[in-house]
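Regression report. Comparing outputs from two consecutive submissions.

Submission 1:
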Amino acid sequence: MYTRQTTRRIVLGGVAIGGGAPVVVQSMTNTDTRDVPATLAQIRELVAAGCEIVRCAVVDDAAAAALKQICASSPVPVVADIHFDSSLALKAIEAGVGGIRINPGTLRGGKRALERLVAAAKERGVVIRVGANSGSLPRDILERFGGPSASALVEAALMQVRMLEELGFYEIKVSLKASSVSGTIAAYRAFATRSDYPLHLGLTEAGPLVPGLVKSAVAMGVLLMEGLGDTIRISLTADPLLEVDAAWALLRACGVRQRGVEIISCPTCGRAEVDIISMVQELWPQLRAVEKPMKVAVMGCVVNGPGEAREADIGIAGGRGQGVLFKKGKVVAKLAEQRLVAELLRAVEEHINTEQTTG
């Protein structure tokens, strides 16, 4: 079985990464960064769902200028996503970001620009994330390795790391992303044998919601179960809130971290006498902000539901026009069907308040 190397510890805007710190959940805003109110509103939504570091695209001077207010008001550290323009990276650092995402080899201005950027990052304690992407590898590396293989990704990432190390900079986080599941897994595994920098896990261009979730869960699930990964983003062509939900679901499934509500619900079938899909869709937006780890069940059978979801802290099971509220598999109330969701939410709130009081 693959054995993980211990990664070194870095700190991004007060958040510890690597060196045994918990795996950190990230996402990226899809608002126009220049629209400060909209960007801050989305950041707050992401944080309520469990996002711990947020990345914003910086496309021009106006976006860089907007970062000053965004960083000052954001409840979590902000990372600036920069392509090519070192002057934007410098302005982002001055604005107060906790980290920047760049490719040192593609910065305009070459080594001198990188030197200025590294000096500013050192002065402000800013983390730099580098990494390789299968869709944008240098031509010489592609030719040497015959295409965007795992070995090519590793070499490209190591090249970027060396560029920073030569300038005495070591507050580095690394990603190695491919759209291929097997390629991503192989690249991270190989890099971990050659470097101890913290790893940001991700799968590039994962795709729409369902295919993206499946591919990301397979790739990152394997890596997490092997002990790899210090930060994680599940990139989806979907609402960024779903990225955060998916990241926490994956961390819970792998036994890496516990946070929030895990909904246990039965699949739909011809035996169900209540609309399970509608119930879960109504419940989830209201349960997303719960931080305390707990299991909530939504079952479609009054007879077998409580027993099948015995490990749930709280649950409901619906029948024809009625249902039951149960705790740890024991029925505590019989209710009309239209009251099931509201009573479940009230029971969840009571459960949280009770735990806080006794805790």
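Submission 2:
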Amino acid sequence: MGFESILSKYEDGPADIFPDASERDVARAASKDCPDERDFAALLSPAAKTMLEPLAQKAHSLTLRHFGRTVLIYAPLYLADYCDNRCRYCCFNGERGGERKKLSQDEIKRETAALASLGIGHVIVLTGDNRLHTPPRYLEDALKIITPHFASVAIEVPSMDTDDYKRMIAAGADGFTMFQETYDRKIYADVHPSGPKRNFLYRLDAPERAATAGMRLINIGALLGLAPWRREVFLTGLHALYLQDKFPSCDITVSLPRLRLSHTGFESYAQPMQDADMVQSIIALRLFLPHVGINISTRETAWFRDNILPLGITKMSAASSTSVGGYAVHKTTGNGQFEVGDERSLPEIKTMLAAKGYYPVLKDWIGAQNP
């Protein structure tokens, strides 16, 4: 059954999971070295809103203890935007008109060279979901071009079987990212009306298949704003804990992508997630999962990313392009998958981190192909 057996326990409950939590419950949760599920719910409850300052101080202390003052820098590398899915919130929606792009091998080489020249050692390779244009063989060939130039290459691609993930690893990938988008099955079905991605359980189990295949890094998350945020963050945390317990040799990390309403015209089922909600989410995750890395992408503004850094952030993207060929091949054309909120260059991000007393890490892993 995998994580579904845990998910099913919470599917019919209130959006706040622990709506009657008091400040005493929050204080007790924060005092524990090993908070349990009920403690995590308390840390995400409305009662915790009045206690964010002392909770933030503990989150900061835990982050320094387990991660020091290092922040790993990464960037996305989009190869194609052909997609058979009809995700209502996504600019790559298969019903969207306009030109589609897929990089050729020569174009992949150009994009790889442009991104590698920035000095970033960690990249995430992304495509849309279209087996005709981007089958596993295309990804294998692309990875063989890309991986020799970076310390670590992760994939954020359509759900695959375990054997396909093994093929990606053999081609050089060592990391996996997949966002469940929402853990609410009803909302999931509505925002994914057709396409391969409509299979909720196949996507839910993908991180486990990737870990079983041998991926070193597993990164998960929900697209915050599709459904009530407290339940989504709570279930993301439980999912991360489940993977951490089952695959202790894997580096489990969590991302907190916040829905950005762009020209797709999508109207969310939940109230937009406010900055204070994001702050509470990061703090609660850090207290519940002190050893788990927390990523924040360039979806967020420069001001917000700078200010949430001490709460528990250990990884952040920089100099990101969210369009196919956005670094060299198609720099001035094409729509990105989402709007970038922090457009600072890598040197500017490094300067910001140094000013705040943090050390930007561009390479923290030496793979077999990168001695």
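Expected: both submissions complete independently.
Actual: both completed, but the second showed a warning that disappeared on reload.
Relevant detail on submission 2: The radius of gyration is 20 Å.
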